[in-house]
Design goal:
Elements lengths: L1 H20 L21 E7 L5 E6 L5 E6 L3 H4 L6 E6 L5 E5 L4 E7 L5 E5 L5 E5 L2
Antiparallel strand pairs: 1-2, 1-8, 2-3, 3-4, 4-5, 5-6, 6-7, 7-8
């Protein structure tokens, strides 16, 4: 029993060596200012239109201001101008705008009641963004 406990203690000490030495498990030096993060987080939404029998996925990297926007091809069947959308822009008033590469505001959303966002412009078709779980 003493031998098993001694072996476990040795393994624990050896395993913690990398922690105390400033190296990771592969022997590489750790950067104390670097945060460990996984793959970039993405916010995902489902876009729907009233009277339109299509839905599509909308993705963007969360953050304030402008971030890259990724839309499924089927979004253009809901509203053709969405084919040009490249930027998700969050404004201080809580609205979200899909912007083209040329800087043109294509669709403007406001925080919705039930949906995460509902379209303000264009007026038709009424578009809604629902958060994916």
């Amino acid at each position: 029993m003493k031998l098993v406990m001694s072996g476990a203690l040795v393994l624990a000490l050896v395993g913690s060596f990398g922690y105390f030495s400033g190296q990771d498990a592969t022997g590489n030096a750790l950067d104390p200012d670097r945060e460990e993060t996984g793959p970039a987080a993405t916010s995902e939404f489902t876009l729907t239109g009233i009277g339109v029998n299509e839905v599509c996925r909308v993705r963007h990297a969360p953050g304030e201001g402008s971030t890259q926007l990724d839309l499924d091809r089927s979004c253009a069947r809901i509203l053709p101008r969405l084919a040009d959308a490249r930027i998700w822009e969050e404004r201080p008033d809580g609205t979200v705008v899909f912007v083209s590469a040329a800087g043109e505001a294509l669709v403007e959303f406001y925080p919705g009641d039930g949906a995460a966002y509902e379209s303000l412009r264009p007026r038709t078709p009424l578009l809604s963004l629902y958060r994916e779980n």
